[in-house]
Write a structure and sequence with these properties.
By secondary structure, this protein is of the alpha/beta class. It is 36% helix and 21% strand. Helix 1 packs across helix 7 and helix 5 packs across helix 9.
């Protein structure tokens, strides 16, 4: 599967460049494979994103009491909170490869009283028996993996026959806005290219169905979940355009400049132009893709 723009793999790895925005490492790459880095700023952005998009992305997802649910790539628990709210009687096992993220999630979700188990594990090699879970949930994980089919195959293995998998991913190629800006578009393209350097695919949303089919799933249904922001929805100017999307772009600025993809002045112009789309005359559009599939 194509990973970002042609030629992206030839970019420098930016090993000495920071993968952080405000509150980040300031010159040190945080962690290979996760383009946004593991910072307090990123944890806040993930929380803001989850809260803003909860109704859009989680609508239709509620797990029955007593069912065993595996959340793969739970991170700091930003999505876990909404899974628990919709299905408080289910039993959740939440895995992530970052011990620090898991500890943050454990601390944040402790007051919920939900049946939650936390385990450090790799999505591509899950430490569970075949057919152990009724349902699995994956959100904003596959875009960061060099081999998403392997992770999907693992999810299929640990599901019981008839068990379901829900996957949610974005697609940065779906972002467009007014006023138009070639600087802003270049910055979005930089994120896609840097993600490709780390082995990921910022355009993966459009590929969910073929990925799931190749991983052996059946009854695959994929639906776009679109965010559109204009002056008629002013609450989304701040929560989505500024705090979710523009904050995500800002977070890779140091790496983009260090890799020579844009000058610092052009990058700052790009961020300013994105913020202009959150003004009275601005509009912003982005599409997420939500897939539900079954293990035969």
């Amino acid at each position: 599967m194509t990973r970002g723009p042609e030629g992206a793999a030839a970019l420098p790895s930016a090993g000495g460049a920071g993968a952080s925005g405000p509150g980040g490492s300031g010159g040190r790459r945080e962690a290979a494979g996760y383009v946004h880095g593991y910072t307090a700023h990123e944890a806040r952005r993930l929380d803001d994103q989850a809260q803003t998009l909860a109704g859009l992305l989680h609508a239709g997802t509620a797990y029955p009491d007593g069912s065993r649910v595996l959340e793969i790539g739970c991170g700091v628990g930003a999505q876990t909170r909404h899974l628990v709210a919709a299905g408080p009687g289910a039993r959740y096992v939440c895995v992530d490869r970052s011990p620090e993220s898991l500890e943050t999630a454990r601390r944040r979700l402790a007051p919920s009283g939900a049946d939650l188990t936390w385990q450090c594990a790799d999505a591509r090699q899950l430490p569970y028996e075949e057919g152990e879970f009724d349902h699995a949930f994956v959100c904003f994980l596959l875009e960061h993996l060099p081999d998403p089919e392997r992770a999907l195959a693992e999810a299929r293995r640990v599901l019981r026959p008839g068990g379901t998998l829900t996957v949610i991913e974005g697609d940065h190629g779906s972002a467009f806005h007014h006023p138009p800006s070639r600087y802003a578009q270049r910055a979005i393209d930089c994120l896609v290219r840097l993600q490709a350097v780390d082995g990921g695919d910022g355009l993966i949303g459009r590929a969910l169905r073929p990925l799931l089919a190749r991983a052996g799933f059946a009854d695959i249904e994929v639906a776009p979940r679109t965010v559109y922001v204009d002056a008629g929805r002013p609450h989304l100017f701040d929560s989505f355009t500024r705090q979710t999307f523009t904050a995500m772009i800002e977070g890779v600025g140091d790496r983009a400049v260090a890799a020579g993809l844009m000058s610092r002045a052009d990058w700052e112009r790009a961020v300013a132009d994105l913020l202009r789309t959150a003004g009275p005359d601005g509009t912003f559009h982005y599409t997420f893709f939500k897939a539900v599939a079954r293990r035969p």
